[in-house]
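Hi, here's the filled form for the chain we discussed.

Project: internal
Contact: R.S.
Residues: 294
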Amino acid sequence: MLEDNNNNKRNSLGKGLEAILGDKDFVLDDLTASLDLDNTNSVQKISIDSLTASPFQPRMDFDEDALETLSLSIKEKGILQPLLVRQKMNGKYEIIAGERRYRAALKAGLKEVPVMIKEMSDKEVLEVALIENIQRENLSPIEEAESLNHLIKSFSHTQESLSQVIGKSRSYIANTLRLLSLPQSVQQMVRENILTAGHVRPLIGLENAEEIAEKIIKKGLNVRQVEELVQQAKDTTPKIKKTKSQDITDIEKNIKQHLGLKVKISTDQKGGGKVVLAYSDLSELDKILDILRK
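And the returned structure, exactly as it came back:
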């Protein structure tokens, strides 16, 4: 029997949220659409003027047309799902999850909004905001990568622990983080949905990533064509042949004259290397063994 991949994804993300929030009261999907907010003890209404956006919100771009549509819906039906907030020292409330609803409510002219208040650390705020946006597929791959990177650098998360929190594989997290090594101009193309993550992943590590990105846009290449283009470029890149120093060549020549054996010396960038003695028959092998025993 086929399983619903979307449900699987929501379930795995939900486990991460339950661990962060400590209960199952807050649901990120639309199950709260039928919730009677006035009769729910954990939900209260507060002035919209007392709300502030979170500095940990990973989503930078909000679609204005989508906000307008949501605003019209809120005017007609109100906010069906409460915002998740935490109280600040100045009496304000910081939005943890639901900034899109908050922005639409402002457009709709609402004076009060339903909220659930939680005490949460900065780390937990970022985790919840990230999970909410991943579940709704609101983030660009670059925004997601930046949030993951922030959790790792600022809150001592590992890729393994993030995997448990957000319900994604470790390889997914590693590949997402690698997008941040792209030039800023290429990252911006992904932010603006000009290129997809699939388009730019093959460009990671290339010196001419910006040039190829422009070519992708100009020619309207799909992901497979980009992969082929990059592979062709790699195949035609002239290989730099390593040349031995005259000293190494002279040493090889002297050993060959002294032992009567073919010898090859290779060096690495750290100053080490290896010496390979070649033999053509068993008698030459015996000769090598005799030398080593002395």
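Let me know if anything looks off before we file it.
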